[in-house]
Amino acid sequence: MTTVPKFIAGPSRYLDDRLGAANFFKRNLRKIFPDHWSFLLGEIALYTFIILLLSGTFLTFWFTPSMGHVVYDGSYAPLKGVQMSEAYASTLDITFDVRGGLLLRQVHHWAALLFTASLMVHMLRVFFTGAYRKPRELNWLIGIALFTLALFEGLTGYSLPDDLLSGAGLRITQGVLLSLPLVGTYLSFFLFGGEYPGHDVIPRFFALHILLIPGILVALITVHLILMWVQKHTQMPGKGRTTMNVVGSPLLPAFMAKSGSYLLFTAAVLVGLSTFAQINPIWLYGPYSPADISAGSQPDWYMGFLEGSLRIMPSWEINLFGTAQAGTLPLSVLIPALGPLGLILTGLVLYPFLERWITGDRSEHHIADRPRNNPHRTAIGVTGITFYGLLLVLGANDLIATFFNISLNWTTYAGRVLIFLGPAVAYLVTYRLCLGLQRSDVTVLDHGVEAGVIRRLPHGEFVEVHTPPSDDSEAHLRARSPIPVLPGARPDSERVPPEVARGPLGRLRVTMSRAYGGDQIPLGDGHDGEGHDGERGPDGERPAGRTPERKAPPG
């Protein structure tokens, strides 16, 4: 399109006459967005965050963030006359006495779960496609900060109703604080305003939940979107896609219409879930009391992995200087609370820089990788998912033992073994699968796509007819390039090791580069031994009348 549409040119001319901004709007309103479905995963997180802000604003009009004691006299008859906190009583009022209150409460809760889930899936998409590489490392770090803040935002919001279930989670939080050496007791007294449970934790969590953390989230999301806008989108490989262009739809009108409908679709899903799927029925749990506990209590899914790590951790502790009076380090709480989350987040932060250090690759990347084309990275990602998933499942080991009639002790022992064995097996299986999928790509390029047509050859043999892949599919498959390696890691490197390969650290770096990089399954030239698969004429078109046939797959 060489001319600017009237609905863009008119407003641009109006603003240019007053602000001198015509060129800015003409340029940016025609910005191209890629069409691949996976790029919409980040938009789900953005839309659910908007819904969280709107529904949370509605709830703050009636919520009372106070731990002062009142006697309930609302509409819910089973709790009439029961002493409870003002926070819990106001939540019950929102649920039963405010028009639309229960629906908005459930919309807010479902949106919080979907927000965290969409952030996680979006991060996985970026990781598996290598979209965190130069020049997008800063945006990757901002994404990790958003995910971390989302976890804390969920924790503070989960505790606000002051019901029995959220109070049990708050008690675990206090136990984690006390396990921190030297500063644990001070942090606990500061958060709770004295001895647990105190009178200050709900007001302080409320301030964090509606002011501080959302403000930081809004700022980081804004910077995240600005950087994405300036740096240009990554895009999946395919015909006509290069590092110098973006193939897709313009912001106005195509992408804006699609994005707006996607926002409405996300809102419709959340309202549908909130209408037909009950979540967090606090009126069934009752008000929180430190002396009470409920069986089968589970946190929201994004905190479930911490619950699992607490359950399988042995009861280890260290008494400093050999005496309990001098100070005790409860490793059974400290390691599960800080270990898994610290391991995952630290690995995510360091990975782009470790990969660049191992491969020596400092070039810019605007074409996303197919996960199979970097087997080690994909295997590492699946290892992390397996580690996280096992801890999430083990957080319900009591329910597993109950419903499947298994000893609770055996579920714990099995979890302690699986948490080490499962990720290792996942790594090996994923790595081999990636290599197998690469071989499948080579087979398609060399022998074509199975047509489902069986042909009988003159000597009586039956073979399946194969057709060449489409131009777009072939460009998609041929986008794979060898993973860079350090100079000293190449098989044909000189006898005198380069500077990067000298010393113990240099030799380790070269060894890791040799294992991580390279091209395990070369694409070849796209021809089989008979010279008819993948042929093209002088004009680049495939010759007519040729039907590639495959007799046996390579390797």
From TrEMBL:
Q: Which cofactors does this protein require?
A: heme
Q: Where is the Cytochrome b/b6 N-terminal region profile domain?
A: 11-237
Tell me the compartments it is located in.
Answer: Cell membrane
Query: How does this protein sit in the membrane?
Result: Multi-pass membrane protein
Compositional bias ranges of the Basic and acidic residues kind: 525-555
> Which reactions appear under catalytic activity for this entry?
a quinol + 2 Fe(III)-[cytochrome c](out) = a quinone + 2 Fe(II)-[cytochrome c](out) + 2 H(+)(out)
User: Which Enzyme Commission number(s) are on file for it?
Assistant: 7.1.1.8
Q: In Gene Ontology terms, what is one molecular function of this protein?
A: quinol-cytochrome-c reductase activity
Which keywords does this Swiss-Prot/TrEMBL entry list? Cell membrane, Electron transport, Heme, Iron, Membrane, Metal-binding, Respiratory chain, Translocase, Transmembrane, Transmembrane helix, Transport
**UniProt GO BP:** respiratory electron transport chain
Q: Which residues cross the membrane?
A: 44-63, 109-128, 140-160, 172-193, 205-230, 262-284, 333-354, 379-404, 410-429
**Matches recorded under SUPFAM superfamilies:** Transmembrane di-heme cytochromes
Tell me one Pfam family matched here: Cytochrom_B_N_2
Any one annotated GO CC term: plasma membrane
Q: Where is this region: Disordered?
A: 482-555
Q: Which PANTHER family match?
A: CYTOCHROME B
Q: What is this protein called?
A: Cytochrome bc1 complex cytochrome b subunit
Organism lineage string: Bacteria, Bacillati, Actinomycetota, Actinomycetes, Streptosporangiales
